[in-house]
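Q: What does the assembly look like in three dimensions?
Context provided by user:
Components: two
Sequences:
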Amino acid sequence: MVILFGFTLNGFEVLAWENMSILEVAGFYGIEIPTLCFMEGLSPYGGCRLCLVEVGPVGKSRLVTSCTYPAREGIEVRTHSQKVLQQRRMLLELYVAACPSSKWLQDLASKHHVTEVRFKPKGEECILCGRCVRMCREQMMGEAIGYVDRGTQRRITTPFDKKSEDCRLCGGCMYVCPVCQLRCQGPKEESTLCSSCLNLYPPCAEKFEEVMCYMDPCAACELEKG
Amino acid sequence: MNALGLLRDVKELKRLKSELKKEKREKFVSVCGDTGCSVWDSKKVDEVFRRVLEEKGLSEEIPVKSTGCLGFCECGPVVIVFPEEIFYQKVNEEDVEEIVEETVVKGKVVERLLYHDPREDKKIVKASDIPFYKKQVRNLLGDNWLIDPGSIVDYFSREGYAAAAKAFTEMSPEEVINEIKEARLRGRGGAGFPTGVKWEECFTKNVENKYIICNADEGDPGAFMDRSILEGNPHSVLEGMMIGGYATGSNHGIVYIREEYPTALEKVKNAILKARETGMLGENILNSGFDFDITVSVGAGAFVCGETSALVNSIEGKVGEPRQKPPHLAEKGLYGKPTVVNNVETLANVPRIIRWGAEEFARAGSKNSGGTKIFSLVGKIRNTGLVEVPLGLPLREIIYEIGGGIKGGGHLKAVQTGGPSGGCLPGYMLDIPTDFEELDAAGSMMGSGGMIVMDYGTCMVEFSRYFLSFLSGESCGKCFSCREGIYRMLEIVEEVAAGTATLSHLDLLEELGEMVKNTTMCGLGKTSANPVLSTLKFFKGEYLAHIMENRCPAGVCRALVTVFINQELCSGCGVCRKKCPEEAITGEKKEPHYIEKALCSKCGICIESCPEEAITRA
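A: Here is the predicted structure of the complete assembly.
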C-alpha cells in the first residue's frame, strides 16, 4: 500500500510517497535541481554535492543532498534559496577549475552564472562522481572498478591498476561519464582501433601502462606505445 | 587467592571481593608502562625493579605493577611507591636500587628524585599534593595508579564489575537509561550527544540482533585519552559496554580499535579473555539471564573511520566512508540492525554512574553535562600529559594551574581544542568554560579532548597549513566539497605562507571555508574548515602581515624569513659551517662567519648548533 504524506517544498504543500527522495519529488513537481553524480537507474551516491537543498526552518536549516535525503512528513525544503545558490556556484567554480576541459561542466557552470574561476586550473580528468563504479556494479554486474586511496589521492581504477578479468569491455563506464563520454566510443573488435579519441590527449596514459579507461586495447594507448 | 574460577552469580562475585579485601596488599610499586614513559625506557626500570625485589626476596610481598598512563608524561618515567604515594620522576635504571633500599625497605624518601615545584620552589613527596594532580578530578584515570591492566583481580578489587552486577540484577534497562540521562552524560567523542537519549533510541527498536560498538579509533594528532584508558583500565570500558548492551537490548559488543594502537589492542584482547574466563562475558552473566559477548575489530587507522557511520562501514568490510543520515545508526546501523556507537571515555564513565548514582556523578560537571573530561595537554606547555577535570572548568585553570603555564616562560598566543576539526582560541578567551556549547559558540569545539597550547613562536598560517595538509590526506574523498575544498584552501594558505598571496585570496579562503562547512556530508568534513576559519577570525592580522608586509611575525614561514649571524656575538668556532647541509656558511677560523642568502634553505640547524646563540631567524 502506498502511503502519501505532505511536506513544504519552496513554500508549497506537496505530496510524496514513502521512500521518495527530495530530488524525485522536486522533479515530479517540475523543479529542476542540477545533478552530476546522480543517474536514474543507479543508486544515489551524494558525492558531487550539486543537488544541495536547504532543509529545515530558516535560521535552523542545513544543506543536504536531495538525491540521498528521503522526503519526510512535515519537513521544510527550499531548493533555490540564496544559501543554496551561493554554495552551488562555489562548487561549480571548483568543478570547472578541477576539470576545465569538460564541456558538460562548463555548460552547467554557465547555466548557473558562474562567470569567473578564481582558482588555478588543475586539468584533472576525473571528478570522482562514481557513476562508472556504480554502472559497472549495479547495471553491468561487473565490479571491475572501484575507488582506491583517500583524500586528494583518491582515484578510480581496476584492482592493482592491472587489466581486470571482470571487465567485459562493455564500455558502460565511459557511456555514463560526464567528463569523458564524448571522448571515446569504446573499442569495436579486439584487434581494431576505435580511433575516436585520436584528437585528444589520453588522460590515463600516464597512470596506466596497459589500461586505458579500464579498457584494452585502446587507440590512444596504442599510440602512446608507438 | 589462586586462579579465578567462573563466577556464577552475584553472591560469588561478592564473596570474591570480600576475599580480595582481606588479602589486599597495601605495599606495591607502580611503574608507568605507557607509551610516553616507555620512550624514556620505563620498561627497563620495570624489569630492574622486579629483579632487585626478587634478589631481596621481597617480590611476593611487594608486587610491581606495570600500569597504564599515570598522566604526568612530562616527568617520565614515573614511579609511585604505595601506600605512601611517593612520586618519583625521571627514574632511570641506576636509581632503582636506591629506591628499593631507601623507600621500599626503610620507608625513607629519596630527595633527589622528587618532583620539584617551580612555583613554590620546593620538593613534593606525595603524588596527590603535586599541583598537576591536585587540581584534577581523576575519576577515570585515578585507578590507573592502582591497577595492573593485565589483571582482572586488580579490577575486581577496585569495585570492578559491581556496576554490571547491580544493573543486571537490580535495575531494568529503562532504569539504567534514566540513570544515564540524569547523570547528564554526553558523548566524549566530539559531538557531545546525550548518551542516554542515544541508548533509548536503540532500546525502543524492537529488533533482534542489535549492536553496541566502542569507538576506539582515536585519530586526532596529539590526542591519547582513549588509548590511555584502554591501556590503563580496559575492564572499565568492557563493563561500560556490558551495561550499554543491557540498556539497549544488544547482546553483541564490538571494540573498533585502530591498528596503530598495538598495546591497547593486546590489553583489550587479554581483558576480554579474562572476562570470559570469569563469566563476566558469555551466556547468562551472573545468573541474570543476560547474554553478552564482545569481539574486537581492527581498523586500518583512517581518521575518517572515527566518524560513526564510516566506522560501521569499515566493520562491515566496506570502504570507510560516512553514510548519509537519516537513517541514523539507531535505525539502520551495522548489518542493517540498530546500532549504538559510543566513545571509549563515554563507556568508561558508565560503571561509575551506575555504582555511585547519577547525582553523585553529576556533582562534577556543568549545567548541561555531568562528569569529568580528559584532555591531552600538549604543545608549549610545562606539564605535558593527560589531565582529567570536571566539565566546565575554565581553560585558564587547565593551562596555568594544572599545566603549569607556558614552557620557557613565554606568553600564550592561542590554544586549540578539539583536534584537527577544532578551532583555536586567542589568549583573551581563556576564561570560557570547557563545555560543549560554550566552546562551540566561541568558534572552536570540545572534540575528543586534544588541547594544543601555542606561544608566540607559532605561526598561525603555518598552523592552519599543517592541519589542512593533515585533513587533505585524511578526508575520505567522497564528497567533492570536502576533498576539493580542503585542497584549494591548502593551496591558498601555502601561497600566504610563501608571501605570494593577495588580499582577495583571504576572502576566497573564507568563502571556501564556509562552503566546506555547509555542504559536506559528515561531521568530520563539516568541521574541517574550523582551523582556517578560527585563525582567520582571531588572527587575521597575521595573515595580513604575510600578505601585505611579506613578513612572518613568528619567524616560522621559511619563504619570508632570513637567517643571519650576529657578527658581534660570533666567535668563529665553525660549528655552524660544518653542520650546514647547504654549505651556505663561510668564514675564517676565529673570525665572524656569515650566511650566503642565496644558498640558505633556512632549515635552522645552525641556530640550534650555535654555542654562542649568535644566529637568529627573523
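Follow-up: The longest strand of chain A covers residues 4-9.
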